[in-house]
Give the backbone structure.
Amino acid sequence: MYTALLIEDDPMQAKIQSHMLTAAGFEVTHCENGCKGIGRALKSRFDVIVTDIDLPDIQGDSIAKILSSYYNGTVPIYMLSANQEHFKVGIDDHGIACRMQKPFNKTMAAMIKTQVSKRI
């Protein structure tokens, strides 16, 4: 089983995303804000990190920059957002594996699992 760190502040979205990732074969650890997510990622290594972009305490792009640097780009980071502005060309991706449009679904979870399994 693969491990996933889910950083999502919306309780309903976290529940849905966690369920989809679990169904795809991930053991999910959820953190409700960016600072807690970063702290957890620095304590434990995960196979993948899935984070919302718009968090109340720190933007997902900053999380990606910090954790991509910490893991030397070896842990894929998937960014989720309902805001189309986050998908503009020219955004610095800081080692982000993929930006995904919410709502999160089973197809996205399966794609993440496929990509993670190819890396490990």
About this structure: The first helix runs from residue 11 to 23.
